[in-house]
Automatic annotation (TrEMBL):
All residue ranges annotated as the Sulfatase N-terminal domain in the record: 29-353
Tree of life domain: Bacteria
Protein name: Sulfatase-like hydrolase/transferase
Organism lineage string: Bacteria, Pseudomonadati, Verrucomicrobiota, Verrucomicrobiia, Verrucomicrobiales
Bias type Polar residues, positions: 475-484
Length: 499
């Protein structure tokens, strides 16, 4: 297997695209967002991996632009989805982690509400995970149509018909606010159902502008798949049989993408439909049927972060860098690999900009940007959409400036680390001691951003937040790391034996 060298790109293709058509379409396009769950960087064929089969997702990449450095705003489900649906750093809304208190407040217009204001018929299919109270469910947050389950992970073969169901794994599947036929009574597999529902939505709304958000549960745990998908993968070269099983789940996901593409093409909508495909975060550390299920670098048996370090939940590249594609035939260059970093919160600004909207009508402005001028060549090839990038989840954090990245992770030695991603995308060589001045400057820049964020709605405060940065307090990187090393090397007191 191999991965793209993100230093290379197909920017030479840009010149063949009309810049005027790219930036100002005569008719704003339909917009489709397809979001996978827990699909790592190494879980798509277009990144160069041959132990996975994704022909339809690869078709999007071949016919559109893939992003060698596509990032999400968080490496776990809920916060990442908030970044997508708000177009901003979700921490500005007090949204830091999964949980019932974490929602997009009604004072902040979300992606669907913006599209609805712009005249789109809006639909969502799949996993919501942005609130479970009635006022925060999809049909009350901008969507004209909804089919799916509002909770997190879900069984792929069964669902409850009980409105008071407490087992979230079999939570009811809803259609427009009412419990729908349980999956097992339909005799279906949830990933297939979502693909079929998405195709139906496109067919039913082909004559009016639509916004469709398809948020799959796949390929999140539980590990369940139809045997028919494994049969199709008997010849797949894998290093472990669990990889083949996982590839079956991915193949079902890919088939659902194919159902969406078929519906778009059969209705003659290809050149007037903008499609984004991405995952909500990177590879999960917990995977597989056999112990040890908690994986370390180089030991994955199902999902793969490729050559990147870290997993879901981390601020290393393996948790944050994901498959990301933009597809719009005739407008977005085909077969291009865009080399500069982009973020999932760029999708909302990109979509609404086609109708002339530059910020939400209500609430805070975007952190994301309109990507089209960058990927179509209207902007200079060396101009990046984002020079500074930030992440914060609980105590884990990261900042990226250009090709330099500073981070702290609880699952590491708990020291502040520095990497040059241009030379070391796998984050193998920590340069914090070699470039102390750069590390300190980046830590100060992170603290300046982090100290101004809204408080977590749960009341939880990161232990390493420098709340007094504005008063002149600084986090001394060298001193911090020295103390961390001393704590690590300090002899632990012997446990007293029980009598």
């Amino acid at each position: 297997m191999h991965m793209h060298d993100f230093k290379t790109s197909a920017l030479s293709l840009i010149g063949s695209v009309s810049l005027i058509a790219a930036s100002q379409a005569a008719t704003p396009p339909n917009v489709i967002i397809v979001l996978a769950d827990d699909q790592g960087y190494g879980d798509v064929g277009f990144h160069g991996f041959d132990d996975i089969r994704t022909p339809n997702i690869d078709k999007l990449a071949k016919g559109g632009t893939s992003f060698a450095q596509g990032y999400v705003t968080a490496s776990v489900c809920g916060p990442s989805r908030c970044g997508i649906m708000s177009g901003m750093h979700q921490q500005r809304l007090g949204y830091y982690g999964n949980g019932p208190l974490s929602v997009i407040p009604h004072s902040q217009q979300n992606f669907a509400e913006m599209m609805k204001e712009l005249g789109y018929h809006t639909g969502m299919i799949g996993k919501w995970h942005l609130g479970e109270t009635e006022d925060q469910l999809p049909w009350n947050r901008g969507f004209d149509f909804y089919y799916g389950s509002p909770t997190g992970s879900h069984d792929y073969f069964k669902s409850s018909a009980n409105a008071d169901e407490t087992r979230k794994a079999i939570f009811p599947v809803y259609r427009n606010g009412k419990i729908d036929t349980p999956i097992q009574e339909r005799g279906d597999y949830l990933t297939e159902v979502y693909g079929d529902e998405a195709a139906d939505f496109i067919n039913e709304n082909k004559d009016r502008p639509f916004f469709l958000y398809v948020a799959h549960n796949a390929v999140h745990f539980p590990w369940q798949v139809h045997d028919k998908y494994l049969e199709r993968l008997k010849d797949l070269p894998v290093h472990h049989e669990e990889r083949r099983f996982f590839a079956g789940m991915v193949l079902a996901l890919d088939d659902s993408v194919g159902a969406i593409l078929d519906a778009v093409e059969k209705n003659g909508l290809s050149e007037n439909t903008l499609i984004f495909y991405l995952s909500d975060n990177g590879t999960p550390r917990g995977q597989g049927f056999k112990q040890p299920k908690q994986k370390e670098r180089g030991t994955t048996t199902m999902s793969s972060p490729g050559d990147f370090n870290g997993f879901k939940g981390d601020t290393y590249e393996g948790g944050l860098r994901v498959p990301l594609v933009a597809y719009w035939p005739g407008t977005i260059p085909a077969g291009q690999v865009y080399p500069h970093p982009v973020v999932s919160f760029d999708m909302a600004p990109t979509a609404v900009a086609r109708s002339g909207m530059t910020k939400p009508s209500k609430g805070l402005p975007f952190d994301g940007v309109d990507l089209l001028p960058y990927i179509t060549g209207e902007k200079p090839a060396n101009e990046r959409p984002h020079q500074n990038m930030f992440w914060r989840r609980d105590n884990d954090y990261a900042i990226r400036q250009g090709d330099w990245k500073l981070c702290w992770n609880s699952r590491s030695d708990q020291t502040i680390e520095l990497y040059n991603l241009a030379e070391d995308p796998g984050e193998r060589v920590d340069l914090v001691n070699k470039y102390p001045e750069r590390a300190q400057q980046m830590q100060d820049a992170f603290d300046a951003w982090d100290s101004q964020l809204a408080e977590n709605v749960t009341g939880k405060v990161p232990a390493n937040r420098n709340v007094k940065y504005a008063e002149g307090k600084r986090t001394n990187v060298s001193q911090f790391n020295t103390q961390a090393a001393e704590r690590k090397n300090r002899p632990q007191p012997k446990k007293r034996k029980g009598k």
